Every structure is written in C-alpha cells, then in structure tokens.
C-alpha cells in the first residue's frame, strides 16, 4: 500500500494540517482550524490501526482544550469539560497545553501544561488525570519560569517500561519516575545553569532545560538542549555530558532524534538575538551521538539566509518514512521539509502565523 504524509502545524493563531505523498514535494493544507487560538502542542497518534490527530489549543475566552480528529482534520471533537483540568482541590488553572505525547501503553496519552504539571489519559486523549505526586513535589515552589512561562514541555514515556517517564520543565530541570508516578527524582547532574553565579552553576534543580529526546531503540541514551548547552546521557539521565563542541552556538530550543538511527540527532542553534548566527538558517546534524557535527541547509536546495526569527522547542520534528523527513517551522510562519534526512530542503508552507509546533507522520493511503 502506498504511504502518504500528514503534517500538523500549530501556530499562535490556529492549526494547519498538511498532506503530501511519500516524496513530500507538493503539499496541500487545510486551515486555520481553531482560528485565533494558540496551538502549542500536536500529536499524530498512529497506534491501534487508526490515525488520530490531537491538538492542544488555548482560547483567550474559553481557556485550553484538547481537540481530536479521526478523519485527518475534516471534523473535530472536543473533550467534555476541557480535558485537561486541575482537580477541584487544586488552586490553579491550566493556561496552555505545551505537550501531547503517546504513551507506551495502548490508549495512553500524556500532556504537559503551564503552570508546570503533567496529566495522563488512558482513553486516547478524551479525559486526563493529574500526576499528583509530581504536582505535590517538594521542589515545585522552587521551579521558576522561562521567558515563555513555566511549563512541562517534555514528556518522554519509556518505550518498554510503562512505569518509567522522564519529564522536563523550564525552569526546573529534568525529573524522572521509575514507579509509575508514585515518586519523582531530579536528574540534572552535569547540566550547567549558566545564569547562576560561579560555583553555583550545577545545582540539583533549577536548570533551564529547553528540550529532551531519545530513540526508542536505545532508551537509556537521551539528548538535551539547554538554555546554554547541548548534552547527552548514556545512563538514563543519571548524568549528563556536554556534546556542544563543534556547534556555532550552544543556545537553541529543539533537539530531535532520527527515527531510524539512534545516534543521529538534529539541533537548530541560535545566537544572542535568538535568531540563527548571522541570520543564516541552518540545521546541524550529528551522526555519532554528538561527537561531531555537520551544517545542513546551505546552497540552492537549502534553508534561507537572512532569517531573523527563532525556531522554538517543538517546531522541529521527523517522520517515519524509510527516507526520513525532517521539518523545521520558524516564527515567520514558514515550514521547511527535508525528505532525505536533512540533505536537501524545500518550503512546505509559508506566510502562516508564528509557528509553535510541527508534528509529522507517515500514514497508509
């Protein structure tokens, strides 16, 4: 059966859904879905023999909502009651849904929110329950806010151990449970908090982690983009080692792993102005787990020069085609696609609002 591609693009003013074939040369988009709502999180859930799209949208009037579609965005359903809500005894309100991730078990979907909390669904994203032990963690009063707000922007369920989940918050750092959420431990050894005074830059918590990822075939190895620094852990986040040497800047937001190659990762470095160094949009790829890096995106089949905006933490992703696609969305409303793992690039869509998240998947038909 021929395979095709679906691409979700969440922006500050709605969601667009793109379709292409496996070549990923020509795209058609529908949207905006949820016009004038902020869409910070998307998920293409291809489990259980179906394709379900999930979008975390936030309305200035009605608050946040998780929308779901089982027909590639032709129609949408909202979860009764708003899906992601704190229990009545918690004096807090969800402002945004920063992350939607499929779990290791059938039907499980994880959500990370602002303010910093993690929720779990067991019915494919139709209802969510608060991870109470993390919300009640004694460190929570010490978690700060990044420039974009305090949020659990990373949720990484272990691919084979449902009791193990790794999460990250700005600013608080990396936390992990190994007992199904009954307890959570900080996992920040080796991550530098460069904004703290000398001698205090390696605290137990408080790091401004921007994104964490890993490959399901090698779950003990994780990669991390920090506020300043790029890191790898080979012991399931117990310790972290810098892999930033060779990059033009160690500041950036996304870090993405190749879907078929556990040692191949991508980052998008930014300079002091939070745009690419010299305004040259470039993705950097390592094929040896961060030991060395190569610049991608130059030349006529590449990314543009003169890009003076950022690529945020969830605005880069891959798909699962045999020739893996890499996608980058920028805050000027443009999304680029590479159908060959980063070697060549083309514009998939332009002139959208601020791109906050991109998610792509290879699907049947």
From TrEMBL:
CDD domains: Sialidase_non-viral (cd15482). SUPFAM superfamilies: Oligoxyloglucan reducing end-specific cellobiohydrolase (SSF110296). InterPro entries: WD40/YVTN_repeat-like_dom_sf (IPR015943), Xyloglucanase_GH74 (IPR052025). It comes from the Bacteria. This is Exo-alpha-sialidase.
